[in-house]
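User: Can you model how iron/sulfur cluster sits in this protein?
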Amino acid sequence: MSEVSAFKPRQSATELHAKPSADYADKLALTQALLKRAAVEFQPVTQASSLGAEDVVITHLINALELDIPVFVLETGRLHTETLALLERTEADSRAPVQVYRPQHEAVIGFVRQQGQDAIYQSIELRKACCQIRKMEPLARALEGKQAWITGLRREQSGARAAVELIDRSEARVKFNPLADWTWGDVWHYIADNRVDYNPLHDQFFPSIGCAPCTRAISLGEEFRAGRWWWEDEAAKECGLHVKPA
Ligand code: SF4
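Assistant: Here's the modeled complex, given as structure tokens:
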């Protein structure tokens, strides 16, 4: 386990956050209907999972509903040990197949050799170059030939995500965002209610979890994604996975 594990939280994330909205049951029913629709009408379809709280909810629903939807994870080579351990457990426990995509070894070696291991902190361009090698190129392979993909994006997560649609048809590949209108309380209510396995970093004030060098815990009052690429301007804070072409 990484150093952050030494910290013992007084309350777990489920204890802190599980609080369903008044219309939680309706939202859950809509999410289930959307996932069923994706599985029936949009094959081949796949779930993109970062193994964060939203994504473990979706994988749990896919398994509970016995849907024909495989799950893929981008293993960037820089994930926390807690995330890697959850990945192992997910691979062992999931009914739906879990596919792991890794970056091309030569590209990673070339980048680190040329720019150094800490280049990501030097400029946004170098950080995005790292995301291109470790995330975007493997993502393109994961999505090849797919008609649709499913994400855990929620409107509440950031200003840039405030207009996320349940079904986004604005690009060539349909994107399902079945938790778009869920609150953080809804997500944790589902996790608590269904005893879903989750990343213990969530118990240590990591609401949004990415690569280890680019994610930190947040403090009280900070925004949901404040711990991601915290040294950059707000506008730059996406890795490219969910950025629409200009
Ligand atoms: S999140 Fe950080 S470590 Fe991960 S791919 Fe992007 S820049 Fe590289």
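A couple of observations from the model: The mean pLDDT is 92. The radius of gyration is 17 Å.
User: Helpful, thanks.
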